[in-house]
Amino acid sequence: MRARVAPMTPPRTTVRALLCGMLLFAAVDLGLFRSGLYAWLAKPNSSLGWFTRHTRFEPLARPPVEQPSVLLLGDSTMGEAGDERALRSRLGGRGTFTNAAVPGSTPRVWPYLFAQMPAPPGGWRYVVVGLRDFDDDGAGPMGERRHDLSFLGPALGLADACVIAGEFRDAAARREVWLSALCKAHAWRRDLQDLLAAPYQRYLEVRRQFGWLRWGQPYAGRDGSMVGIGVEGDRVVGLRPDQHDALQQLTHLVWRRDVVDDSGHRRRWLGELVDRVTATGAQVVFVRMPSQLLPRAAARVPATAVLDELARRPGVHVLPFDAFAELERPECFFDALHVNRAARTRFTELLAEALRARFPADLGR
User: Fold this and answer.
1) What is the pTM of this model?
2) Are 226 and 329 in contact (CB under 8 A)?
């Protein structure tokens, strides 16, 4: 007896199924991810979560107020140091003051962050940009930093992909850039995987975030200090054995080994940020964040060609290199990178004084 052969699926039916699947995927990508709807479910404490928090959620909770308006940009060093409420109080008690610093972000991220942030009524007037250093020589080539794509994926268009993909030598990184620009589901895939793995936990995290934005107490910084650390010979002492990251950070601060010229990358992206900010009529103010927790082993004149060039542009201001130098000591830091609560208060006082002196007609009492 011959075995019965299952009938083959007609080619036309297969093509129809593939087309329907592609249309369904495109509809989900467009309606859920590209529209920004999924951003409301982003994991709050992730790279994308911080980006969407500043560009979507916090502006909704910001009441419309009169000018002046001041925006603080940077990475976690600005997030921990800049107290926007205290700054507003010290500069007259009026206007919109927002700290939109994103932990782990870099100059390549900040132009996109600024472009996507809804401005307050009348627009931003001053954008204060915190840099860890004015020095163009860094610990590694920032153009190869793939973690930037964790922030930028949903924000990238095809024109952006052309620019950013060209900065990477790694083929996998270039592919990641193009896939994120073409398919927003790909850009959100890790966040979506986390959501599907623990949906109830995500619900609690998102609810907690919105509750904090509406009723939470303003962030006041963290206590603690690094008193007791120092340098003996060619090593940093006073750290616990498990503080490997702190040891690496402090070693670089003191000896600055294996630095590379990163001026091209900084020129492109700090310049792009300046272009976008000044196009709105706002002023840009660059500040060097307090970061030199321990003194350098050898004196070195910083390479500041990029900041020198930017300072010659209209609407760009660079505060003195040592404007916050009094905070660069162990008792002002709670870890190897971030200032503590007391130093946060003092940093905000010094920043207010510097801004009032630079723009007395607008920010003076």
Assistant:
1) 0.88
2) no
